């Protein structure tokens, strides 16, 4: 598949998705919001992609939302009955939220490698990833506050589950920059690299470690971690038991034991493809 906003390359079972509009600071235009969830679904559909790495090009990771998205009268009418305008805007925001939730909903881990500025809507996006990595010059900012609006597509909902509440509130109220080292100290990013080349090398190495594991075990980890984040420990343990009762089979474990015995790398089957209902 080809996209206007992304370049996609494959490195074995790793899919590398790069934001590809550096001349526009990778602003999240209308095409971005349509293409991102489609790209995620396309990559998981074959069952051959086991990890997705998202990075960017140019000076900054992304300048965030392209304000033209909200100034398009076809999607966001600026005149007419106030109630109908409000109902329409609510649906638009829900659709934008669903776009970024695609990173959580795909069954494979999504790792994000950030350089330069990760601003506004771009921060909403990386909050939905499984793990974040950045360069020493990277920074993150809830820019919407400075623009006179409340961030509305995920940062305020996800970031408090990734960092201390007090810091998140400070970032939201002030709109200040969260620099790379502070982000690492707070646990928002896993690792800070000196430059983009070193970062991509490091993140791809982590992705390779993930891809070498049983994809069934990895997708189970993602499912359980996402569920546990949003539910009580008791509910999560019950769901874990149900998942294990249905999904656990000794097939992959036996491959692991055999590989260890022969000091080799286990070769696991891909997950079954994701197909439309009743597709041949």
From TrEMBL:
Primary residence: other
GO biological process, one term: fatty acid beta-oxidation
Record keywords, A-Z: Acetylation, Fatty acid metabolism, Isomerase, Lipid metabolism, Peroxisome
Pathways per UniProt: Lipid metabolism; fatty acid beta-oxidation
CDD domains xrefs: crotonase-like
Gene3D superfamilies cross-referenced by the UniProt entry: 2-enoyl-CoA Hydratase, Chain A, domain 1, Lyase 2-enoyl-coa Hydratase, Chain A, domain 2
Any one cellular-component term (Gene Ontology): cytoplasm
Gene Ontology molecular function terms on file: isomerase activity
Location(s), subcellular: Peroxisome
Top-level taxon of the source organism: Bacteria
Sequence similarity: Belongs to the enoyl-CoA hydratase/isomerase family.
Protein name: Enoyl-CoA hydratase
Organism encoding this protein: Pseudomonas fluvialis
């Amino acid at each position: 598949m080809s996209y206007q906003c992304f370049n996609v390359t494959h490195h074995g079972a790793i899919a590398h998705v790069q934001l590809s509009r550096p001349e526009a600071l990778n602003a999240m235009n209308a095409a971005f919001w349509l293409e991102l969830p489609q790209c995620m679904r396309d990559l998981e559909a074959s069952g051959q992609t086991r990890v997705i790495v998202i990075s960017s090009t140019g000076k900054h990771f992304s300048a965030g939302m392209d304000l033209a998205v909200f100034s398009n009268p076809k999607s966001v009418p600026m005149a007419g009955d106030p109630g109908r305008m409000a109902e329409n805007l609510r649906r638009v925001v829900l659709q934008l939220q669903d776009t970024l939730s695609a990173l959580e909903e795909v069954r494979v881990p999504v790792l994000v490698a950030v350089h330069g500025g990760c601003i506004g809507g771009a921060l909403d996006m990386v909050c939905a990833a499984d793990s974040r990595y950045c360069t020493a010059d990277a920074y993150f900012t809830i820019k919407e506050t400075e623009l006179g609006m409340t961030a509305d597509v995920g940062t305020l909902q996800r970031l408090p589950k990734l960092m201390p509440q007090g810091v998140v509130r400070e970032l939201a109220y002030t709109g200040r920059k969260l620099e790379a080292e502070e982000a690492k100290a707070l646990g928002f990013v896993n690792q800070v690299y000196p430059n983009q080349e070193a970062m991509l090398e490091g993140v791809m190495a982590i992705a390779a470690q993930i891809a070498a594991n049983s994809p069934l075990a990895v997708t189970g980890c993602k499912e359980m971690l996402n569920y546990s984040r949003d539910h009580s420990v008791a509910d999560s343990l019950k769901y874990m038991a149900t998942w294990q009762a249905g999904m656990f089979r000794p097939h992959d474990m036996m491959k692991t034991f055999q590989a260890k015995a022969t000091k080799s790398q286990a070769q696991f089957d891909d997950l079954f493809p994701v197909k439309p209902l009743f597709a041949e």
